[in-house]
């Protein structure tokens, strides 16, 4: 159990999983019979994307102990989420058929596919979009196919902007008139957050699964574990459900080639991210992970402190980390300190969609964005103060020493 936390957070801890054992069910009943701040509980569940699991388990264990208006609201939200996920999966079927007819290889991940893999029910995970990985060389054709299906790239980019986005980033949104969103990926990570898992190898190793009668390709179990650890790290594990998904995937996968997972993490310079994610899965998901995955004692101690900090952030109502705090986290998350420094430099100088939306420049003047971005960030974060600047300076010195 989670020590030194509120009854509401402990209740969320109990429900953040696919199924309950007898002890967890008994603990939920005990918590429901005590005093609970239902407004906080529901708000925290929404924030951490746990509302479907919260309603599912409370409704099955002891619905009579939940105030009627609260249970009714939970039920409505869960039903709407299920409808949305089913609709998304139906749209995914149509898109897969379209890509297959035109011989474009697609691998689907996250979203309702991950929900089916980890919870056995696509309605038990909140999904807002469809994530599809393609070969980078297929991007132009895939863009045309999505346009033929009623999707438009959001936002619209000039040729220079699109070319730069393909080089430095890994995905872009396509939106339909009915507000469906497809995140089209040609890579697995932006260059502003280095992660060396080769998307071409991920495509090659993809496994075929069947969900609701639909056959599709998704990441292998080993690649999914590593990707989920990277994805959570990139977003500084700000959502509890990401930990639940990781833990339940491992629990549902049976035999996992852990030496292969570790080897791929080493090749991807993501061993710290893997170990951090597994530490959180052990804590929040009550999951057993082979001790061989955690070898260096000194590094494990450092990651344990990082895991505890992320746990505290999830349990508290904290603000998202700022640029400078993210740099400090990256020094802990990335195997190579130089990657954290490169991430900081790229985040300062490499133009993004936000820069293009803030200032429109003609193609020949595109290089000016490399000057515009740091000026825009300087204005945005000028109130951050000298203490954070000193923190970055200390971090750079530590990276150089390491």
Spans of at least 5 consecutive residues with low confidence: none
Number of domains: 2
Task: Name the structural class.
Answer: alpha+beta
| Element-by-element helix/strand order | HHHHHEHEHEHEEHEEHHHHHHHHHH
Radius of gyration, taken over Cα atoms and rounded to an integer in Å: 22 Å
Approximate strand percentage: 5-15%
Question: So, CATH architecture of the largest domain?
Answer: 2-Layer Sandwich
User: How many beta-strand segments?
Assistant: 7
**Average of per-residue pLDDT values:** 90
- The helix content, as a percent range, equals 55-70%
Mind summarizing the main beta sheet?
A: 5 strands, mixed
CATH class type of the largest domain: Alpha Beta
Distance between the termini: 36 Å
Short description:
By secondary structure, the protein is an alpha+beta fold. It contains 19 helices and seven strands. The strands form two sheets. It has a five-stranded mixed beta sheet with strand order 1-2-5-4-3. The chain has a two-stranded antiparallel sheet with strand order 6-7.
Write up what this structure looks like.
The protein has helices spanning 7-15, 22-32, 38-47, 51-61, 68-101, 111-119, 139-148, 159-168, 199-204, 221-234, 240-252, 258-267, 271-285, 297-315, 323-333, 337-349, 353-358, 369-380, 386-401, and strands at residues 107-109, 130-133, 151-154, 171-176, 181-185, 207-211, 214-218. It has 402 residues and is α+β, with helices and mostly antiparallel strands. The model has no long low-confidence stretch (mean pLDDT 90).
